[in-house]
Write a structure and sequence with these properties.
The termini are far apart. The chain has helices at residues 2-19, 24-41, 44-71. The chain is built from three helices and no strands. With 80 residues, it is mainly alpha-helical. The radius of gyration is 18 Å and the shape is elongated. The chain has a domain at 23-60.
Length: 80
């Protein structure tokens, strides 16, 4: 039963990545790190799934910050 659940989670994560390849950067990196950490703890697939979620969140946050910086007008120096 434990392996069936792990396989279902892994399949769902892979389908999510395959459905939106442009959004996969943070997920793949996070899944790799989470998978290694989860493997050490005995829950590799669960760690990979959680790592994917966290990695995607971090990538979205970085994207929002970059967009906010680009939308701000450049400040010019008026010193003489």
């Amino acid at each position: 039963m434990k392996h069936l659940f792990a396989a279902a989670v892994a399949t769902a994560a892979l389908l999510a990545v395959a459905a939106s390849p442009a959004q996969a950067a943070g997920c793949l990196r996070g899944a790799a790190v989470g998978g290694v950490a989860g493997h050490v703890a005995g829950h590799g697939v669960l760690g990979a799934a959680a790592g994917c979620v966290v990695g995607r969140h971090q990538a979205n946050k970085a994207s929002r910050e970059q967009a906010a910086q680009q939308s701000q007008p450049a400040q010019t120096s008026t010193r003489q």
